[in-house]
Amino acid sequence: MRVMKSNLLQRVAILVFLLALSGGGLISVALAQDVTPVLTIEHGANSPEARKQHYVILVSLDGFRYDYAKKYDAKNLQALAASGATAPDGMIPAYPSLTFPNHYTLATGLYPEHHGIVANSFYDPERKQIYSLSNPATVTDGSWYGGAPLWVLAEQQGMRTACFFWPGSEAEIQGARPSYYLKYDEKIPNHDRVEQVLAWLRLPEERRPHLITLYFSEVDHQGHEHGPDSDEVRAAVQAVDKEIGALEAGVKKLALPVDIIVVSDHGMAAVQGDYITLDQYFPDAGAFEKIVGSQLYAKSEADAQRAYAALHGKSDKFEVYRRSQMPTPLHDDRNPRSGDPIVVTTGPYLVRFSAPPSSGTPEHKQVGAHGFDPERVPDMKASFFAAGVDIRVGVTVAPFDNVDIYPLVAKLLGLDTSHLKTGPIDGDLRPLQGILRNRAVAAGN
Ligand code: AMP
Ligand code: ZN
Ligand code: ZN
Question: Which atom of ligand 1 is closest in space to residue 371's alpha carbon?
Fold first, then answer.
């Protein structure tokens, strides 16, 4: 596999090389990728079967709560909903309602306990290592990631894909990567991201990605800093809505068979009260092999039981469970990476094991947060909009689990999900079948 990083010098060299070699045919590849620093993996052309398929742009608006489009009058998203499908009462995120677990759930159709990215940061008691979203060494290491993300599924079936950011997209998973992707850099302006997506769709048919992911973080960021009811969130919603408009307008000009799906990973709630600090109930940090935030990795069964007993029934602000007894809807009883015992807050409360050592300056506390059980905190619900050649006009769907996005996208792209080496997925197309036009329903796989 060959990785090409398109920095300026290389791009000039590639251009000259391609000019000399191909007399023009491939040059648009290099030019089309000029917008941002794209990494290219040479997987060859789309297969003849892949070329017959439509195109899907899967957009994620981080932290875009299910009611934001209406609440903040996001005109383009509302128009997208009117011209296609939406879930007015929200899409249900997986627990914990955090960024990495949920993006990777959207990409794999698996609950976090099954795909293994159980939190943004967690400990693996078998590997004796910590995974963290802020550590590029773990983010780019495919051995942490289970399942077969949509871009891997597509690449394995001869279809080219591109990721303008998505948790997991920088790692080689099941021996595959997207044909085009970028190293995560939140400073790349949103508009450049849209321009890049449109440039990818202008590539020659053989090289043109059929699945493209696109990601925007600022609504989440403003939600944390200022809370879901702030003018800052309103402005961020308006800003990403403008980019959705630009994306749609650009796509329209291309006259390609495209479906645009806009989702979010979770919602946002106004934080209530002060931190819950667990060591006031159980001060024995020595009982744990590791503590990552509020995730507790007990040294032994006896230590886990002691911690559980000490925390149990102590506050109406949280429940504590032994991992094996986690309530079924939370889908979190299988993976040792989640720790044991597990603390689940009953409302939008921040929880930690211990207070950090005092630094003299006041502690920065988030105004908005997520991660909570979506059943107990409905503000965790995420957004869903879809419109395009395969989507019926003006349809609404009842709340559904976000694991169902995977079979939807696979269906739209004509990908076969019946022989996954990684085992069956948790998602099910049925809750979304009604949004499909007949053509897509009929083109079964
Ligand atoms: P959360 O703490 O769950 O709100 O996580 C959101 C954070 O994840 C944001 O600060 C993003 O910048 C970061 N993030 C999103 N996507 C990626 C990615 N692909 N690689 C690294 N960090 C990311
Ligand atoms: Zn997020
Ligand atoms: Zn967040």
Answer: 3
Task: Give the environment of ion ligand 3: residues with CB less than 5 A.
Answer: 63, 220
Task: Output the pLDDT for position 439.
Answer: 63
Give the global pTM.
Answer: 0.93
Contact 116, 143 (CB under 8 A): no
- Report the pLDDT value the prediction gives residue 11, as an integer from 0 to 100: 44
Residue holding tokens 């079936």? 157
Q: Quick one: pLDDT at residue 283? A: 98
Cβ of 99 closer than 6 Å to ligand 1, yes or no, is yes
| Concatenated DSSP letters of 251-298 | HHHHT--EEEEEE-S---EE--SSPEEGGGT---GGGEEEEETTEEEE
49 backbone dihedrals φ, ψ, rounded to 5° = -65, -45
CA of 131 to the centre of ligand 1 (A): 13
Contact 422, 377 (CB under 8 A): no
Ligand with an atom nearest the CA of residue 164: 1
How would you class 203 by CB atoms within 10 Å of its CB: exposed for 0-12, middle for 13-18, buried for 19 or more?
buried
99 is catalytic: yes
Nearest CA to ligand 1 atom 16: 167
> Going by C-beta distance under 8 Å and a sequence separation of 6 or more, which residues neighbour residue 332?
95, 96, 111, 112, 113, 118, 323, 326, 338, 342
Give distance in angstroms: CA of 62 to centre of ligand 2: 4
CA 441 to chain centre: 26
Specify the pLDDT at position 16: 34
Q: Which stretches of the chain drop beneath a pLDDT of 50?
A: 1-2, 6-33, 444-445
What pLDDT is stored for residue 59 in this prediction?
99
Tell whether ligand 1 has an atom less than 6 A from the beta carbon of residue 98: yes
Residue 178: partners with Cβ closer than 8 Å, 6 or more residues away = 41, 151, 155, 161, 162, 163, 169, 209
Tell me, rounded to whole angstroms, the distance of Cα 162 from its chain centroid. Answer: 15
In this predicted structure, what is the pLDDT of residue 367?
Answer: 98
Could you tell me the domains of the chain?
Answer: 37-113+130-267+380-443 (3.40.720.10), 276-365 (3.30.1360.180)
Q: Which residues surround ligand 2, an ion (CB under 5 A)?
A: 62-63, 99, 220, 265
